[in-house]
Amino acid sequence: MVCTRKTKTLVSTCVILSGMTNIICLLYVGWVTNYIASVYVRGQEPAPDKKLEEDKGDTLKIIERLDHLENVIKQHIQEAPAKPEEAEAEPFTDSSLFAHWGQDLSPEGRRVALKQFQYYGYNAYLSDRLPLDRPLPDLRPSGCHNLSFPSSLPEVSIVFIFVNEALSVLLRSIHSAIERTPPHLLKEIILVDDNSSNEELKEKLSEYVDKVNGQKPGFIKVVRHSKQEGLIRSRVSGWRAATAPVVALFDAHVEFNVGWAEPVLTRIKENRKRIISPSFDNIKYDNFEIEEYPLAAQGFDWELWCRYLNPPKAWWKLENSTAPIRSPALIGCFIVDRQYFQEIGLLDEGMEVYGGENVELGIRPIVYICHGMTPQNVYYTSSQQIQVGVLSPTVDDDDNRCLVDVNSRPRLIECSYAKAKRMKLHWQFSQGGPIQNRKSKRCLELQENSGAEFGFQLVLQRCSGQHWTITNVLRSLAS
């Protein structure tokens, strides 16, 4: 059982599968939200049924406002200048930056602050003047303070990915992770620079890393891309560099609060097949104040943009704000067992830039079919397809999945869909021979993996001579 709280960022929209992970996330474009006082108000309580409806109503109102942010995000991504010096400061009076901050700045200070704001999307001018170890309010539900956790938990590698992030924001993310994660649980921090052009992120960042590593050799690793790879491949780069049993993948504009790690690692220790997205409070983009966010799950619309969902009625009936919320979508910031992440194929490295990582794991068929959810029957058809599903397939049967070579990974995809999209679903196979994709020429083979359930995992790779034998052959599939 873990506590939950949540928010959204520009570069990753953050969803709850589990919480008490009191992490603060910097929001690029701010908006107004109201604190849900009815959830935590002390004193006289309304009737349970009435209180439940009030809580749900307030949450839904905020969820509607949060959803509106997606259009703002799209516009902001398109309008961001390439470099700080390319940003032309707009008139001071027209900027939202100075609505609640900066009235005492000189004209030159306002010009510099606005120029940085137009480049970064948040108040980097103010961030540069805040301490790395600034105090943060503890906004967790009160029940979180009474929870206990196992003394033996797996270590975690924290991965931060960034491109042209403000140096002070990145350093505050790193510093808060170090200071607010129990030392015996934090094995290392990995920084993935997706080919930043900002010079501060080279020399000055290296100086900081050298200083930390001087005290703890090898504690911070830096991975630098020679070209921009985008969010997905950057996260995978960080995963590849990680060595701890658990990997936490984050953007580089967050601040960790006390007690974030123990509940997450406890849930993964209980079940290594859980993928957990921690909850986030918001760092206001203009004045860097911390704003508490309501509880919600996440889904997605037909455009695959994240949408905030009211928690299910069963969760509300628990009347326990520390309980985790199951979510149909998963955003970029998440914590996962390192080996299990490999077993399910990591993230799809064929996706470019931003916008797919929030739903890709949630809708990937292999997650639902291949990892203990249901038993499966596998058969090789005369049309050279390897199908997974019922034993008596018909044209109208939509429960059949075909093995497909997708970006060098074995994936199970609905057969009719794979046919329509002309995917690589045809295989050459004979009893006692290799299973080779007719188009890609890659072979389906077993690869040793100590973290996998049976010590092996299926991979698609250059054929090495592995042979397959079907031990039970059905001469007829007719019912």
List keywords for this structure.
single chain, 479 residues, Spore Coat Polysaccharide Biosynthesis Protein SpsA, Chain A, 4-stranded mixed sheet, globular, lectin, manganese, glycoprotein, polypeptide N-acetylgalactosaminyltransferase activity
Q: Determine the N-to-C terminus distance.
A: 46 Å
Number of strands: 19
How big is the Rg? 25 Å
Instruction: Tell me what the CATH architecture of the largest domain is.
Output: Alpha-Beta Complex
Classify the helix fraction into a percent range.
Answer: 25-40%
Could you say which structural class the secondary elements and strand pairing correspond to?
Answer: alpha+beta
Q: Could you give the order of strands across the largest sheet?
A: 4-3-2-5-11
Largest sheet: 5 strands, mixed
In CATH's first tier, which class of the largest domain applies? Alpha Beta
- Low-pLDDT runs of 5+ residues are 1-19, 28-48, 365-377, 389-398
Summed up, the domain count is: 2
Rough shape?
globular
Beta-strand share of residues: 15-25%
CATH topology of the largest domain: Spore Coat Polysaccharide Biosynthesis Protein SpsA, Chain A
Counting DSSP H or I runs of 4 or more residues, the number of helices is 13
- Let me know the average pLDDT: 77
Assigned CATH superfamily of the largest domain? Spore Coat Polysaccharide Biosynthesis Protein SpsA, Chain A
Pathway: Protein modification; protein glycosylation
Keywords: Disulfide bond, Glycoprotein, Glycosyltransferase, Golgi apparatus, Lectin, Manganese, Membrane, Metal-binding, Signal-anchor, Transferase, Transmembrane, Transmembrane helix
Transmembrane segments: 9-31
Family: Belongs to the glycosyltransferase 2 family. GalNAc-T subfamily.
